[in-house]
Write a structure and sequence with these properties.
Elements: H1 2-25, H2 32-38, H3 45-49, H4 53-78, H5 83-100, H6 102-108, H7 117-141, H8 145-169, H9 174-189
């Protein structure tokens, strides 16, 4: 039992070290040896938990998404009765999540050209929920398909753009940026 627990702890440590490795070195220069070294483990340790580098990267993406989904579920529970408010709060939370967890945010914005289909699906998972909610709100509001697609595009651009602004400008600008984002979201989703 204790061996299994220690094994799971090492697996989690490898994932967390992999997040830092991806942020620091990117996908192209990702090294399992550096990940193992960061955990104080042997260079063979990652292979006890992951078949290869791609499997570790997929586990990293799943780990980040699981952290996001905990927040997403809490927001959904709080705003279940108001789909517009739910969508606004999820968009804002997405930016706050990336700002509070810069390593996580960097993972979700990794260059997708080096990823396989499963890894791309994991990266797209948080935005897929926003697209689904936008489509549902559009159906409720009578938007045509083109309008719903444009609104989805706008929400994605606001999330990514505001996240990048906060990364560059820092916490001093976060309150104003999030207030501006909230106002734009409220206007566009009304």
């Amino acid at each position: 039992m204790e061996d299994h627990f220690e094994s799971q702890q090492l697996r989690t440590r490898l994932i967390v070290a992999g997040i830092a490795e991806l942020r620091q070195h990117g996908l192209a220069d990702f090294s399992l040896r550096r990940v193992a070294s960061a955990c104080g483990a042997s260079c063979a340790a990652p292979y006890k938990h992951f078949k290869n580098k791609d499997e570790l990267i997929l586990a990293i993406l799943c780990y980040v998404n699981c952290q996001w989904e905990l927040l997403e579920e809490a927001i959904a529970a709080a705003h279940r009765e108001d789909p517009c408010r739910l969508l606004i709060e999820l968009c804002l939370a997405n930016v706050r999540f990336a700002a509070a967890n810069p390593d996580f945010g960097a993972i979700l914005r990794v260059d997708e050209r080096g990823l396989d289909t499963r890894e791309r699906a994991e990266i797209d998972r948080p935005m897929k929920k926003i697209a689904e909610l936008t489509a549902a709100l559009g159906h409720e509001r009578g938007w045509d398909a083109e309008t719903a697609a444009q609104k989805t595009f706008l929400l994605r651009a606001l999330i990514y753009g505001t996240t990048r602004l906060l990364e560059n400008d820092g916490a001093d600008e976060s309150t104003a940026a999030l207030q501006t984002m909230r106002a734009i979201l409220a206007r566009e989703l009304a």
